[in-house]
Amino acid sequence: MEIVKHVAPPTGLRRRLWRLPIGLYRIGLGPLLGHRVMLLTHTGRVSGRRRQAVIEIVEHDGHGYVAASGFGSRADWYRNVMATPEVTIQVGGRTIPATATPLDTDEGARIMAAYAPRHPAAARRLCQIMGFAVDGSVEDYREVGRHIPFVRFVPRGSRA
Question: Rounded to whole angstroms, what are the CA distances from 133 to 5, 63, 130?
Answer without folding.
Answer: 9, 31, 9
